[in-house]
Structure formats: structure tokens, C-alpha cells
Amino acid sequence: MSPARLSLTPLKELEVIKRQIPAHGLIPNTSIQNKPLLIYKGAFRGSGNTVSASAIESHLSSVGIVSPQWRYTMYSTTHFHSTTHEILCIAEGRAKLCFGGEQNPGRLDADVKAGDVVVVPAGVGHRLMTDVDGGFEMVGSYPRGAKSWDMCYGTEEEKGKIERIKELGWFGKDPVYGEEGPAVNV
């Protein structure tokens, strides 16, 4: 059985939150590559409080920029990735997420729901603060050809990993919209 077709919000109607988040402690956030955290509000249109995870995966695969790798919630401990950028597509539920580290005065606390997409640059700390309805689920994806994602927590031992973030390339096309999407224009 083929997955349900998705409807995308037209780019001219898409609300995009762009946020630079300063480094805090040993969490580099957007300071290394100067690429903002992006949240596409309601990029995928579904029914009610759910967007088909299979349909999200199929859409992302057809655009061809990222490879979907998992379906899960977000960890409740602040972490970041030093080896790759991450695309989080919310498939079910609502949640409050924290980007940048909860002690960081420059953090972003964001309310997300099914249909939203978050482009998390390598180095940006993120964690689940509250699963509002229970059952919060995302499709996690990474750029094709990227190294396997890692888990970093802002410890002294990770300083070498943080420096390598400078070497990561950015998106030549938007992972959701292709040629014209918001990730291309940052």
C-alpha cells in the first residue's frame, strides 16, 4: 500500500522562524557556521493532529536531499550533533522544544505540532521540554552522504568534535521544498 499523499503549504504562505542562537558553555549552537535554526510552521498539511509519517518519508525521499532514518520523539536531555545537520518533521502531536540549552539566555523555546519542520544546524543543542498531548513523534532525517549522526552533550571531551562542525557543507537545495525553499536562502 502506498503512503498517503501530502499537501505542502505554498512557499508564499509558509511562516518560517529563523533564529541565530549564541554559543553557551560548550554548546556551539549557530555560532560556528552562522546558519540559523529554521522552523517551517505547518509545512506539511495533514488531518487533525497527525501527518502520515510514511507520507513524510516518501516526500523527503522524492526530494532527494535527506534520508529519513527514524521515527521517535525527542530526547529530554540537551544534546547536539557534530557530524551532520538534522531535519525533524513532526508527524504527530504537539510539544514544547528548547533549542540552544535551557540555561542559555539566547535559547529558543518553540511550540511545534504535526506538520511543522525543524532544520537543526549541526551544533545546535535541542531537547524535549513537554510532550503536550502524549505520543509526540517526529521523522528524523539527515543529508544524503552525511556521516552517521553522533550525540554530544557539551562536555570538555567533545571540543575536537565541535571544531569539525566548521567543515560541514550546507544544503544546496531545501530538504522539503527543493530548489526554492527557505534553507537555500540563509
UniProtKB/TrEMBL annotation:
SUPFAM superfamilies: RmlC-like cupins
Gene3D superfamilies: Jelly Rolls
Residue ranges that the Swiss-Prot or TrEMBL entry lists as coiled coil: none
Domain Cupin type-2 residue range list: 76-129
A Pfam short name: Cupin_2
Protein name: Cupin type-2 domain-containing protein
